[in-house]
## 1
Amino acid sequence: MRIDLAGKTALVTGSTQGIGLTIATTLADAGARVAVNGRSPETVSSVIAALQEENPDRGLVAAPGDVTTEDGAARVLAATGDVDILVNNLGIFGATPALDISDDEWRRYFDVNVLAAVRLIRATLPGMTERGWGRVLDIASDSAVVIPAEMIHYGMSKTALLAVSRGFAKEAAGTGVTVNSVLAGPTHTGGVEDFVYSLVDPQLSWEEAQREFMRVHRPQSLLQRLIEPEEIASMVAYLASPLASATTGAAVRVDGGYIDAIVP
């Protein structure tokens, strides 16, 4: 299969690092014009320069702004133009004992991980449906189903994101627009390395720390390793393409077999 996104504009939130950066790169390499998003204009410009130095043919546009605010989201959308592919990747996570999570933290996780996605879907879905084609992809997590005891506020936000995706898929029914969520499993990023070391002996080598983390904290993973960002991005690129036209309202798993269920 050849994934061809030429002529499509994609907005990937939180795409200056980690999974978001890999998704943005993969979509650009498939021919899409990709809006790179982050809060800092300087960071966004630096990332775009580095990506285009690797491949001058990548169609990239700077779309800095804080999408967790109405004004910031408006600036991002103005810089992007008409959005054909929306990837709600921005998210925060962290370990906190359940009884220590404050009201403010519960609200912050909902605002960043859920409401920011809703805000952008609400702004872009009408244009997609009017044009008769579009893709909305919400990057969820295995934690939406297997709630981690050490970060239930994060799990709650990702569970909510599954409901958001399914609901907006019904709103887009019959329009040529698909809305799906991606259940990403434990993935190897810089931020996750810090998280792993917060839970295991910081004196361990990375390979030892990863094995210990998976053994103790994620023992149900069938891969028994962290997923690489490219593996998440490959699924996103497929779901963003015309090849996935019959997949909508779904929670598609790229979880390494972490979720112990036969169906999503």
## 2
Amino acid sequence: MGAFKRGGREMDERVCELIELVELACAEHDLFSSCTSAPELLMVSGGSDSTAMCLLAAHLARQGRVDPSRYHVLHVDHGLRGEDSANDALFSERLAAQCGFAFHLRRIDVSQRTAQFGGNVESAARHMRYELAEELLDELCEQAGVPAEEGRICVAHTRDDRIETFFMRTIVGTGPGGFASIAFRNGCVVRPLLDASRSQLRDFIEAQAEAGFFEPIIVEGANAGGEFSEGARLGLWREDATNFGSEGFRAFVRNELIPLAKTRNPSLDETLSRTIDAIADENEMLQQQVEAALGAATREDGTFDANSLAELEPPLLRRAIYTLCKRALPVAERIERKHIDAIAENLLRDGFAIDLPGAVRFSNSRGRISLRAIMERNSELEETLVEGVKLAIPGAVELAGGVRIAAWVVAPGSNAAAFARDCSTATRVFLDAQLVSEKASELTISSRRPGETLQPLGMAGATKKLSDLLIDAKVDAMRRDEIPIVRAGDEIVWVATVAPFPFQRRQEDRR
């Protein structure tokens, strides 16, 4: 590699330092898959950071240290900057070609999504990028014949990004996990450049160009303007004009807040990086304690024991609540401190429920904590059940929302009770025809009534409250009036779609 003098140091020395830095981070944080054929998906925007990541992978491939066929470049065109967005895509495609990597282009309409679902453009763009990346990675893993969890999505976040994120979260408020800033790894997403500075990466790009390993890519567009860096004007990377102002939150932190802080501490990058690493280590230790506590509180039915959680010290309890909520919420949704405080305060209150972002409900039912999706109410079905519907035997009725209930007579054999117990399911039930006919000539389908009881199979003639059965079956409280209750006369013989508990007594129990 040729030597490129800059600031009195040879550039090839800086290249070696960068490679050592990245390899150390990969080893310490277990970033890459042990499967030698697993695909690596490089998220490339065309900016200096992702360009350097792509060139670094190509450098390692030339040295025979990685298999270039494993690497794929994904560029996502957000359609937000018109011609400049198209030119970013063209730059990224040509970069991938120079590196010898397969190129994948995806186009999305971020503006349309934010108009439809709300939120800010930057957040929507980020979530859509990761969704597309995960979909593509699944496809690539399937083609390679390797498990999806072995693939990796490589993102070019740097030490600069980490520090910017720290300041941003300081301003808006966050917990200890937020102060840990950007993680080296989240599942299949890895950030091998997180210990490197943006200036190191730009030095590396220039070194690759000087050594003849990278041919500058001149693309028409705003990068020719005077406000852009020399590297962007020379075609070494692309730049977004919005990064130079202070209107965006991150741009404000990058261009105004951090430079001001560096007037008091010129070594802010190194100092704050050490602080973030320490916070991240402590955060990981606390999270391990929380995971152990959640494991101990988990019940066989998948709910969590409220009393067990309540024994945690307040900081661990808040973190445990946050962990449970984040698992249940869609990725794009945020759990706020007001939700966590409300849950912690009411954790032991039976019947407590709170609706969270993303249509998820946190509830306590008899000391059992659960988080479930809030189902949309079918008001048409509710109205139909309130009025009641007759069901002849044999016969069938169509209810609102595509619900169909039918009845017919079968001859199961001599041991009818055993047949009913063995073959009944939540959507199919076998009843004693003689016993039903004694109660009524036809069945009635309607909604629940206050204080009703029934005799489920397996309870030896004991009764159970209908409300308790619906709670045990984890039927959302908002949907309980949508459950078709099938009766013979005034007696419940089946709660459709919930559980197999027909009105059925053993022969010897009849009187």
